[in-house]
């Protein structure tokens, strides 16, 4: 959808004033919330050191329209690349990057794309709504007697709800959709499945799962947008191009997520196995689940 405008906040990962998706806004809020939480992985100092290391080793890409890919292959990354580039995940990564919805909308006029884009965006709105519920459910995992932490989490949930509301408003104003489409009864199977996974993860797993679940829609969306940008058949005069492709080619969102994940090495290193030794780690399993859900959500745009 269109760029969302929010006031930046002082944090480990400064939130951009404009973001192309409320999902990105949620990712930044949650990285900041967990970065300052003393019981959740790497310290603020460790994360800042990782940021400096990536900045110092960055070499700008020389090839036009391939900035993000070159940047991520130039900068050392462990967590995301070990999942994204694993041969055992190639099947789903390929389906994600070559999904019919994004390819069709990138090459089509507004008249042909908008009905698909609207159907997809409605389900994406429900994802944001479920994300708020995910965070609320996660309050049950906080230690007893830590009211300051509860206060911080509650404030984060309030912000998340505001971002979801803004996404719904953008659906009406920028995509020319109807507010009636956002009614609860319009959820499809793919959207319901995504919501169920979020709720199950909140009740059964720990805080780090949230960051693994968003890899496809932060890191993956950027790669996908750049692939579409490089497609000679992609049109640059459409709503989809201006509100989805162009904004999502900004590499900063994925780089910040990558930095956060890499800084938390000690938290995840025992759960990332991609199956090479016959054991599939929990993070790889969750990553594959998130890819499948994103692929299904793209495909749901063709449901009538």
Topology:
Layout: E1 4-5, E2 18-19, H1 22-35, H2 44-56, H3 67-74, H4 79-84, H5 90-97, H6 100-107, H7 110-138, H8 147-173, H9 189-204, H10 209-213, H11 215-230, H12 239-248, H13 252-263, H14 265-268, H15 282-299
Antiparallel strand pairs: 1-2
Shape: globular
What order do the SSEs take from the amino end to the carboxyl end, as H and E? EEHHHHHHHHHHHHHHH
Strand order of the largest sheet: 1-2
Q: Whole-Å distance between the termini? A: 21 Å
Portion of residues within helices: 55-70%
Explain how this protein is built.
There is one protein chain. The chain has a two-stranded antiparallel ribbon. The chain is an all-alpha fold and 304 residues long. The protein contains 15 helices and two strands. The model is unreliable at 3-10 and 58-66 (pLDDT under 50). Helix content is 64%, strand content 1%. The chain is globular and about 55 Å long.
Which structural traits does this protein have?
304 residues; 15 helices; 2 strands
